[in-house]
Amino acid sequence: STFLPLASDQQSMGNSLPSAGQLQKYRGGWLLCLDEKQRVKCIQRQRGEPEHDYYRAAAEHDRAQSKQKLEMLMQELFRLQDLNKNGFLEEQELVKLNQKIAMLHYGKDSKDADRETVETKYRNHFREHLDPNGKPVDYNRFREYMAGILDGIDKDPRVHEMTLEQWIAEAESGRAAFFCASMSSQSDFEYMQAMSFRESRVFGSRQPPTATPSSGAFSPGGP
């Protein structure tokens, strides 16, 4: 077969192509082909359309950026909950942080902020959803668990981003409460040694930990 130029090239080719009326329906990504008997047939050509390619590339870029942002937020949330900086989320860390957050939400003397009540709630949650024996879990498990929680709230990545930002704000406030004398306790000391007030309040103040797979985690004040 002999391939002819695109219909859009007709004017530059003079009378070497079939009539314009015949070519009209083949515009936009089609080629004309003359077979051995000079009969006209058309063959589809996979041709990129610049505008569509641009928007497709832009959309892919936005998705990649959103995915990167979500990963960064997830790592920051894990870092904030890893009070002793050992690269794992421990049952007692979850309990201690949520005790502080409950005090901030309801008031230090509120029954909803009762230390034993909060401890029982989050200890049970950790063992039900993370590790049945209360063993520490690493970032990969934390991420797996959190992804399920976020998808259960909404499938939209924009909602995931806003939700993670809210949980990060709560975790930062909870960490800062360790330095408030009216909310602190003697058992806080081992965690306070590993963090500073500034570090607890400034997002991205240090690189998040890199850990290997293990078993899920959960966000402070979250479900």
Task: Provide key terms for this protein.
single chain; 3-stranded antiparallel β-sheet; 3 strands; disordered C terminus; mainly alpha
Fold and architecture overview:
This protein is mainly α and 223 residues long. 52% of the residues lie in helices and 5% in strands. It has nine helices and three strands; from the N terminus they run βααββααααααα. Strands 1-2-3 form a three-stranded antiparallel beta sheet, with no helix packed on it. Helix 3 packs parallel to helix 7, helix 4 (91-106) crosses helix 5 and helix 4 crosses helix 7. The model is unreliable at 1-28 and 202-223 (pLDDT under 50).
Give the helices and strands, then pairings:
Blueprint: E1 2-3, H1 10-13, H2 20-23, E2 30-34, E3 40-44, H3 50-81, H4 91-106, H5 115-129, H6 139-153, H7 157-177, H8 189-192, H9 197-201
Antiparallel strand pairs: 1-2, 2-3
